[in-house]
Amino acid sequence: MSSKETVGGWIVRLRSWFPEREFFMRSEGQVRFIRISSRLQMRAAAAVAALVLLWLGTMLAVTVSRLVEAQDRLSLLNREARVLTAENRVASYRNSLNGVADDLRRRQDFIEKMVSAHLGGLPKDARAGETVSNSDREAARTVAKVSAALPEASGLAKMEARQLAFVESLTRYADRQSEAASQRIRRLGLDPRMMLASLDRGEATGGAMGGPFIPMSTSANGMIDPRFERLGLSLARMNALQSGIQRLPQVLPASLDYISSGFGYRSDPFTHAGAFHPGLDFRGPIGAPIYAAARGRVSFVGQRSGYGNCVEIDHGNGLITRYAHMSGFRTTLGHQVNGGEQIGVIGSTGRSTGPHLHFEVRINDRPVNPRPFLEARNHVPQEDLRAGAGGD
Prior knowledge:
Radius of gyration: 52 Å
Shape: rod-shaped
Oligomer: single chain
Helix content: 40-55%
CATH class of the largest domain: Mainly Beta
Number of helices: 8
CATH superfamily of the largest domain: Glucose Permease (Domain IIA)
């Protein structure tokens, strides 16, 4: 079937829906005849259909507009909710930073109070010749920059500056303690550098050192801040020198009446000729206790010519103490002794004219006067002496 025939068929069908209609109207005795053609009916129907379609389109447009408006409002509310949530989170983070800074400040307060209680006030100002860094200006500039760029981190920046100042003050304290210990050691005729070298080699502990290598770091990348490394080295040097002092003879080897013979040249008690006396003689009764003058390792227990029953203690750094003329031993070879620990009893064995203790201090097998060592105990802080009695 051709398109013309199809269109014609539709026109015929459409006219069948709208046949010509005639209406009769009577008014005042007159009859009027009204005819409505198919074309007029179709035009009227088309106009009505157009109006209906227009109304439907309008209603659809209003509905769509309302849906879009509702969707836009919902989207706006969602965006506002997200913004509010983000602002709350930022505020929470800022509060967290403030809380962290407060916690760190309290901890730093606690640390500084504890250190001050046990060590006294830490030095703030540098002295001439000191090589400790001073980060005050650098830290102040850092705090200013951080406060301007990220105000909520200002508290953390201030705590970092305070921490660095504390580390540098603690380093100064350790260096000054080391210098004081070095001066005491020099007054005894010893070289602090040799003492540090022997302690580094472990000679004072028989070379018994070891363990896994666990590097120290102050950052996530494994690096260590030079100021913290400097602190570690200063503390290690201070501990080494103070440990060396604890191994110097500073405890009276006997609680006796008096020194019966001094160090140096004297008249020999047997021949009455001039002779060199390499130690101090302490007179006392037989059986009176003899004490180790310092911490160390017993390196000899037995008899030596002229000394009789003898004990020797190795204190490291080439320094030993010798205790002679004993009537009995109270220690054994290789024993680690503490200053003030009993090692024997007074006697008169060997070349002796009566009960007494012959006490020697020898450095690299050369006898030195023990008196300065024993007298130096009055200048050593009591906590050092108590630490010396604490054992290896």
